[in-house]
Amino acid sequence: MIIPCKSCDSRFRLDNRVIKPTGSNVRCSNCGEIFKVFKPNKIEKRKYQRIKTQNLISYFSLDDGGKMVSQGIGIAMDISKGGILLQTTDAIESRLIALSAIDRKKNLFKAKGRLAYSKKTSIGTYFSGIKFIGVEKHVTRFIVNLVKEYNFYGYNLFISWHNNDPPPIPSYVT
C-alpha cells in the first residue's frame, strides 16, 4: 500500500503484511518524521471502481424465455462498469433483469443484467447486485446517462420521482 508522510506528504510503498494489527510506527525516509500507520479496514476486491449514486431505476425480472415475471422500482446505490447495486422493497428472484431509467428530457435508457446476489437488509429492504450483460457500448451509455442524471439533479433522488411520469416498459421486455 502507498503511505503518505504526515509531515512532508512524501509517498512511499509499504507492504501491509508487515503492519501489526494495532498499527506500526514508520519513519519517513525524506524528512525523518515518525508516525503510526494502520492496515486498511477493508480490501477492495472489485474489478471496477464504483460510483455512488441514488437514481430511480425500473427493473423487470425475466424468465429464461425472456418474458416478464415481475417488475418494480429500486434505487441504484452505486454503479460500475461491471454492474449495479440496487436497493428494492422486494427481493429480486429472477436471474435475468432488464433495467431502465429516464433522463430529464424523457429519453429512455436501458441495460440488461444477471442477478449476482440479493440480501435482505436490517431495515427490511433488499440489496441486489446485478452484473451487466450485453454489448459494452450499451452498458457504457447506460452508466454515463445514469451518472449524468444523478449529477444534474444535485444528488436529490426525489426530484426525478415527483417531476416525471412513471417510466414506460421497454419494448425488449414485453
Write a structural description.
The protein is 14% helix and 41% strand. The protein is mainly beta and 174 residues long. It has 2 domains: 36 residues, no CATH class; 113 residues, Thrombin, subunit H (Beta Barrel), CATH 2.40.10.220. A 6-stranded antiparallel β-barrel has the order 5-6-7-10-9-8. Strands 1-2 form a two-stranded antiparallel sheet. It is elongated, with a radius of gyration of 21 Å. About 4% of the residues have low confidence.
Summarize the structure.
This protein is mainly beta and 174 residues long. The chain has two helices and ten strands, in the order E-E-E-E-E-E-E-E-E-E-H-H.
Rounded to the nearest angstrom, the radius of gyration is 21 Å
Shape, principal axes of CA atoms:
elongated
Query: Overall mean pLDDT score?
Result: 82
User: Helical amount among residues, as a percent range?
Assistant: 10-25%
Sketch the topology as an H/E string, one letter per element: EEEEEEEEEEHH
CATH level 1 class label of the largest domain: Mainly Beta
What is the helix tally? 2
Instruction: Give the CATH topology of the largest domain.
Output: Thrombin, subunit H
User: Per CATH, which architecture of the largest domain?
Assistant: Beta Barrel
The largest sheet, given as strand count, sense and whether it forms a barrel, is: 6 strands, antiparallel, barrel
Number of domains: 2
Give me the secondary-structure topology.
Elements: E1 2-4, E2 11-13, E3 24-27, E4 34-37, E5 51-62, E6 68-79, E7 83-88, E8 96-102, E9 108-120, E10 126-133, H1 136-152, H2 157-163
Antiparallel strand pairs: 1-2, 3-4, 5-6, 5-8, 6-7, 7-10, 8-9, 9-10
